[in-house]
Amino acid sequence: MPIKSSKFKGRLKAMAILFIGIAIGAVGHYVYSNKGLEDILPPSKAEIETQQFKNYLNFLESSLDSLHQIKSNPVPGDWLYSHDEAGQTMAQYVKIKPVGKTPERFKVYIQSLGEFDATEKAILILTADYLRSFYNIHVEILDPIPVSIMPMDQQRDHQGYHQLNARYILNEVLKPALPKDAAAYMAFTNLDIYPSEDYNFVFGLGSLKNRVGVYSIARFGDPNFSRDAYNQCLSRTLKVAAHELGHMFSIKHCVEYECVMNGSNHLEESDFKPQYLCPKDLFKVCWNLETDELYRFNNLANFWQQIGFEDNANFYRKSILLIEQEQNEKNKKFNQKDI
After folding, report:
1. Residues 244, 269, 290, 293: which is the catalytic one?
2. FRET label pair with 44: which of 24, 75, 83, 159, CA 20 to 30 Å apart?
3. 244 is catalytic
4. Cα separation of 214 and 10, whole Å?
5. Using CA atoms, how far apart are residues 274 and 239, in angstroms rounded to an integer?
């Protein structure tokens, strides 16, 4: 899927035309007037702590409210039941100067770790395609490296799984080999991973500052067992990959909405959280990775449709319609004031 080269090129061109319709591969913008558009146009990366910056977050939340749910109260065993997290506001996100794209660092590299069968390789290729659309960034898969790169004291057998130390992968495998043009460098493995001796396992681990991360498909089921098992493994893989790459772009766990950036303590909790970003984390991605939300929604709708996940494709189609409807209502109000 193509990567948008200029932040809001499509939207700015659309100011001169009426919205005709939404078709696969193209998104229109129904605009009556240029007046007042500063309230609903995405701010540039340089525009922080401005009224436009605040207005646009309000615009996203009000537009998409009907598609998103407030985070449910945790129960024993859930991530937030045992982890006291405060979340991350947009102001806090901007203040930390998050990891993102720069002219020198503009790619995500996926480093496969270990041996993969044909089905797992196909899932890896689809994961790269998905991340291109999810984060509007170039993604490249590197040749695999063997598990033997891991010292035996950084591997263990635990609860029926052979496991690799995720922190060792980040700090000793990925970080020293970080490509110069990498915005992020993440490992993909079919072996189970753990971050420290007091953890049973993690699905993935991503650094908020160092541009490195790892995720595992070991607990996602056998994708060769059946078509349903394949779809389940693929869905879980896409979710954890988007989550960990979000951490690598400095996004902390979401505690306000049901969101792909929610923490997960177990597979049932991970399965429950959605594939999509909440409005607040959507704003972080659109602002930091310099992408238009409608352009992103359209690419994601296309991706999900192509792999046969119609419910996910419909979510993004509905998101497009809601954004357009909210924009149209605001434009009508501006025009009425001018009459």
Report:
1. 244
2. 24
3. yes
4. 34
5. 8
